[in-house]
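User: For a benchmark we're assembling, each entry needs the component sequences followed by a predicted structure for the full assembly. Here are entry 17's components. Please fill in the structure.
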Amino acid sequence: MLQRDYTTSQLDVLEAEAIHIMREVAAEFERPCLLFSGGKDSIVMLRIAEKAFWPAAIPFPLMHVDTGHNFDEVIEFRDRRSAELGARLVVASVQDSIDQGRVVEETGRRASRNRLQTTTLLDAIEEHEFDAVFGGARRDEEKARAKERVFSFRDDFGQWDPKNQRPELWNLYNSRIRKGEHIRVFPLSNWTELDIWDYIRREGIEIPSIYFAHTRKVFERDGMLLPDSDVVVRGDDEPLFESVVRYRTVGDMTCTGAVQSVAATIEEIIEEIAATRITERGATRADDRASEAAMEDRKREGYF
Amino acid sequence: MDILRFATAGSVDDGKSTLIGRLLFDSKAIFEDQLEAVERTSRDRGTEYTDLSLLTDGLRAEREQGITIDVAYRYFATPRRKFIIADTPGHIQYTRNMVTGASTADLAIILIDARKGVLEQSRRHAFLTSLLRVPHLVLAVNKMDLVDYSRERFEEIRDEFTAFASKLNVGDLTFIPISALNGDNVVSRSENMPWYLGTSLLHHLENVHIASDRNLTDVRFPVQYVIRPQRATDPAFHDYRGYAGQVAGGVLKPGDEVVHLPSGLTTRIASIDTFDGPVEEAFPPMSVTLRFEDDIDISRGDMIARPNNQPSAAQELEAMVCWMADGLKLTPRSKLMIKHTTRTARALVRDLHYRLDVNTLHRDEEAGSLGLNEIGRVSLRVTQPLFVDDYARNRMTGGFILVDESTNGTVGAGMIIDAR
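Assistant: Structure for entry 17:
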C-alpha cells in the first residue's frame, strides 16, 4: 500500500506543467526563443527553462523587445542574468524600427512606444525565423488572455484569431505550422500573480530592485504615478513630487505606473498583493485602460 | 495547498456566470477595478443589475452577441485550495469546448434551472463529463429561490438525473440545491433550506478528495526529451545522458526495474534527477529526468514501464472520437496525424462503427461520417505502435488528438477503449 497520499503543492503542479510545455517546444520546434524583459514573469519563465533542461544549457536564445524607454535597473538586470546563464540575448530595438521608417513615433503628452513594439517584435521573429516564441503572459491578467491557448497559433502576419483557436486537450499540444507562421507559447498560463510571487520567494530568485519600495520622483496622471524621466512627456499641470513607491509590473516607462508602497522584501510584497483589491494591470498599465477591448485588439495585431 | 481543476457547464440562462461571479467575488478573486468596469458596462447597456457574466465573457464578439464562444479559464484560491475553472459554454455547437475543458478537469459542475428541470442539455453535459472520465460530478440545482426552496422539486430533479446517470460512468455524484443570485449554499449553508443536510458548494470543492484520482499503480513515463549537455553547465556532466518527461502513471524509484518500449529491453533506474537535486520518487504530474543503469537507445516518443505491467503496443486502436473541425468531416479512409503522449504518427480511419446522439445516447450505425461536435466510435490503424492504456484507466496514456495535415488544425480528440 502507498505510504502517503502523494499530494502535490500548487507551485509544484504549476512548475511541472510549465517544464512539460518547455520541453515539448524544445522537442518539436526548430527555432524557439524566449521573450525576456527582466520583468518578474519572464524571470520565473527563465528559471523554469533552466530547470527543464538542466544540466544542459537552455537550448534557445532569449529575446528582448527594447523600447529604449525601459528602466535602467531592469536593463542592467536583463544583461547580467543572460550572461550568468551563458544564454544568447537578441535585443530587438524599437528605436531601430523608427530609424528604418517601419513605424512612426507617437507625439504629445501620451506618446508611448508600447504599440510600436508589435512591429519590432514581428520583424525580429521574421528576421530570426523563430517558429516558437515563449511569452510570460498569464490568463489571470486580462479577460482576452483568459481565453488564449497555451500554444497560441499566429498566422504569417503574426495575428491572433480568437474565434479560430485550436482546441487544446489534456497535455497534448499541436505544434504543426507552415513556414512563416509561428506559435506563441505561454507556459505560465495557469499561474496567478500571487503564484509568481510565491514562487520567487520559494526559489529565492533575484528580481530587479524597482519591484521593492524606493524613493522616486513621480507625478500623477489618471490616478497613476508615472516616473520623472526624459522620455515621459509631463505637462506643467503635472507637478513632480517625491514618494515611496514600487512597481507591480515592469514595462515601458511611459505607460507603467508605480504604486505607493513600503514593501521592501518579498514577504512584504506577498502580503501586499494578497490584500490588494486592484488587478496589477488595472493599477499600473495605461495601455489597458484605453478601451474595454484594448488588449484583445493589440493581441490580434500580434502583441505579446 | 493543492489544485482542483473544475469545469462548469450550462448556459447563461442557468445562472452559470452568476455562480462563477459569486465564487470569484466571495473568494475575493474579483478586484475593484474589474467590478467597476463591469458595473460601468452594465450601466451603459441599461442593465439594472451588475451583469457578472461580463467578467467571464472576454472577447468583443462575445459581448456583442451576448454569448460565450470559447473556454475561459478563471482562477481563485481559498486557504485550502487553488482552483482553476474551465468555464465552458453550454450550447450544442460548443460540445468541443466542453470536451476541451473537461479533459483536464478533476470535477465538473452541471447547472440545472430548478424551474426547468433536467433538460436535453443537462443530459448532454453529463454524458460528456462521463465520456471524458471527469472523476467527480456536481449537479447544482440552481434558482431554488424561484421554486420556494422546495425540497420536493429538488428531489424530483435529483431522482430523474440519478436514473439517467446510472447509464453513464459517473464515479462520484453530488447534488446541491443553490441560488447563485442570493448565495444560498454557494459559500455557506443556506438558512432557507434547512431540509438540505449536505455541505455548501464551495465547501465541497475545498474538500473533495482528488489525490486518489491519479493512476499511481501503472508506471508510465513517456520519454519527452533527451538531455545530453553539449555545453554542460558543469564539466562533470560531460557524459550525462538523461531522459526527461512528465510521469503519466505510477510511482518510480531509483533501483526499480523498468522496461523500455518499443525495444522491450529492461534496465534499472539509476537516478531521478531534477534541477533541485535527485529525488527518491516520482509520480504524476511531476516533470523529472531519468537516468538508467544500462546504455539503451532511447528517444522521444518511447515509453518506460514496469516489466510486469506494460501498456499495449497498439497499431490498431478502438476509440471514441469527438470531431472538432468545421467543414472537414471524419469518414472511413480519412488520413490524419495522431498525437498520443509524446509520440506522433499517421493514422487511417478504418471504420466508423456508429455515431452517438449525445442527447439520447442512441447509436446510429448507418452514419457515414462525423461532423463538427459529433461523437462516434472508430477504428484506427496507426503507422507505428503507440503505447496505450484504456482511457478509463489512465487519461494521459488513453487520450489522443487528431490533426489534419492540410490545415494543421486540431480536428479530433480520442479516448481509447479496448486497448490490445
